[in-house]
């Protein structure tokens, strides 16, 4: 029996296709490029994937990615512990950080409510957020979920859960264009929305 | 000294950015997706990258990717050894194969002439192609490089090198794609189809 001549390449294309936003043509181009022009990049990526899977975990306090039990931001004594900003993803957190207009702490949902996809309150850590927000130090929760349909529903559910227990909850001002994701919004708009939060 | 909390994640984003067509935002989204929702895919990709780098090499006869010294197509006794089709990439070879209209052999350049990027005749294996084409069995070389500026230059150089040594060299016909409406075909193609009418 003749051995198949293209298994390793076919498996690589297949594995690359599991990356979000990568179709079969892109996966082929990536595989060809790595093997033909940049084998060091292929090996570097393999090592980086293994290291990330092994080391990266979720912060016990804010749920963002970290290699320690508690992330550097949560441990930073310079941050204002009276404010807690709720974002969907670490990318959104990074976008808020880049504005330089917020010095409080974070809670990262690592997703958004999406009943149709089976993503419920527990999946976004709502019970943990409630416990976190009522640590007797937090005075204001700023909900900075995206201004998409699912982000708004998530914001509403979070606001209801916290307000009903007596906490001050604000939402970023609607200076952020409706329908857009924070990650792709210019910094000035995000900074403005922070100062206009209500 | 406090250890950096995001090294593994930052390294992963950096490694993903080396994939063609992947910017920093896409790389972040890919990294977050893998770590949050699909760690098996991350490990699978790491294994596939290592296996491909270790196993995939170039066919001695046609230069395409293979795990054997000579690829399955070159070894296939059903193929017509009198015809040799020259393509830029394995993806182009796969496209020709899918047409089902060609039963000869191939030579894969694994690139195209691009003097501005420092890609010369040796980089696309022109000396090897000349040796391959003059094996006394090949009767016709069909140049199927892409119909781009660089693909045309590559075709021209290959054709000159082989014709001057007395071999029959043909080029895929250019013209209006079958099934397309003139209104939507670019003007250069229409103009060319006019001058090449027969
Ligand atoms: Zn944290
Ligand atoms: Zn071959």
From TrEMBL, chains A, B:
Gene Ontology terms for molecular function: DNA binding; zinc ion binding
Database matches in SMART domains: TOPRIM (SM00493)
Toprim domain boundaries: 82-177
GO biological process, one term: DNA repair
Source superkingdom: Bacteria
Zinc fingers (C4-type) by residue: 59-74
Record Gene3D superfamilies: 3.40.1360.10, RecR Domain 1 (1.10.8.420)
The entry's keywords: DNA damage, DNA recombination, DNA repair, Metal-binding, Zinc, Zinc-finger
Purpose: May play a role in DNA repair. It seems to be involved in an RecBC-independent recombinational process of DNA repair. It may act with RecF and RecO.
Family: Belongs to the RecR family.
Xref: NCBIfam families: recR
Protein name: Recombination protein RecR
Native source species: Leptothrix cholodnii (strain ATCC 51168 / LMG 8142 / SP-6)
